[in-house]
Amino acid sequence: MRKAIYLALLHYPVYDRQGKVITTSFTNLDIHDISRVAKTYDCKFFFLVTPVKSQREFAKRLINHWTEGFGSRYNPSRREALQVLSIKSDLKETLKNIEELEDGKTPIIIATGAKGNLANLDFLACRRMIHKGEKDQPILFLFGTGWGLASEVIQQADFVLEPIIGQGVYNHLSVRSAVAIVLDRLLGADGIKFVNLEEDKNECH
């Protein structure tokens, strides 16, 4: 049975290009596109995490427009996608909410990023964990804005997922592109088939 999957997009603490810890602003594209991806791959919630109160309030107004206001009637599919979105002030509040939703179960935290030096979990092992793991724990994937999650966030993670590697040297995907690729590799039909085939091969040996 597949584990419950949660996503969190952190806007603090993250790095800027000089390596300083900053707070970034959310974008409408991130809200809409990541919500759609989360809904497509049946994630339980996508948490937009920012400590800036004005940003949280603006995001809530935007969500309300599409889930309860005119937008909900104009575009019902977008309303459905945004119903998986929740706004939080920090990672601590996010974890508390997940534990409440999961009857006290603490999630396995998996951080993501473009650098591979801290990675200790590859995609195959992560797929196994999601689809075949013995422990009945939810999984929370952390994604960062700016130039990536700050080290203090990485230190709270149980695992760091290997980065997405393309065919060239360019390595600057938007976070919404990264979320889509990661979820398809881990939750898409091809990934699930691969895990099942691997298990069948092991049983034959």
UniProtKB/TrEMBL annotation:
Q: Does the keyword Cytoplasm apply?
A: no
The record, for Gene3D superfamilies, names:
3.40.1280.10
- Per UniProt, which keywords does this protein have? Methyltransferase, Transferase
Q: Which residues form the tRNA (guanine-N(1)-)-methyltransferase C-terminal domain?
A: 5-188
Record flagged with keyword Transferase:
yes
Q: A Gene Ontology MF term for this entry?
A: methyltransferase activity
**A Gene Ontology BP annotation from the UniProt entry:** methylation
One Pfam entry for this protein is: Methyltrn_RNA_4
What name does UniProt use for this protein?
A: RNA methyltransferase
